[in-house]
Design goal:
about 210 residues; Four Helix Bundle (Hemerythrin (Met), subunit A)
Length: about 210
């Protein structure tokens, strides 16, 4: 059984490269119909947890991404309708504001607290899958300079992303451990974002 603690076995940068090159996202609950496998080519996150994670990863390396077309970086061919475009733009604005807030108030897109713990754990894994997808899509490589702390964080994210339903059993019911992991992921995101995209107080959300 997988150990859901903060002391995951740390992977090497070589492990990271292999993982990103062999990337395959597990598709689950649809977030936008136009992003389904029937309507979009290639791979990309299609539930709310994956999509938010992917956007966070994208912004870590590409703070100048267009608020109107950022999702095209994650998908080869996608044509969202007008309502979806509004929602995607809102998600972008909300995420950028949270990442650049002084108190870093970004909250991971996960099921409500009263949802079964198993579904919350799997959504957390989806978020991690999305984060890795976004980092890879925006150009993270072995040549990207990262601190030891950031490398360890990414290794932990890889481990969490590999959790699946087969890893879960009745003993995985400690909400406190889960919340600690979520907070670790949240603060680790702040660390890697701050390292790769130092906050500019004069930065404004603009249309590109």
């Amino acid at each position: 059984m997988t150990n859901y603690s903060l002391d995951f076995a740390m992977g090497s940068t070589t492990d990271l490269t292999i993982f990103l090159k062999s990337w395959c996202i597990y598709m689950s609950e649809l977030y936008f119909p136009s992003l389904s496998a029937n309507n979009a080519t290639g791979e990309g996150p299609i539930n709310s947890s994956e999509l938010q994670g992917a956007l966070c990863g994208l912004l870590c390396l590409n703070s100048q991404a267009s608020r109107a077309t950022w999702y095209k970086i994650l998908y080869e061919d996608v044509q969202p309708d007008e309502d979806e475009q509004i929602d995607l733009t809102h998600l972008f604005d909300q995420t950028v504001q949270a990442l650049n807030s002084l108190d870093f108030d970004l909250q991971l897109e996960l099921p409500e607290d009263n949802a079964p713990i198993a579904s919350r754990i799997l959504a957390m894994a989806d978020w991690c899958q999305g984060l890795l997808f976004g980092l890879a899509a925006s150009g993270l490589t072995d040549d990207t300079e990262l601190s030891t702390d950031c490398k360890e964080y990414i290794a932990d994210v890889i481990n969490i992303s590999q959790i699946n339903s087969d890893d879960l059993d009745a003993s995985d019911s400690n909400d406190m451990d889960f919340e600690e992991l979520v907070e670790y992921l949240r603060m680790g995101l702040f660390l890697i974002y701050s390292e790769l995209q130092p906050v500019d107080d004069s930065q404004q959300i603009t249309e590109h």
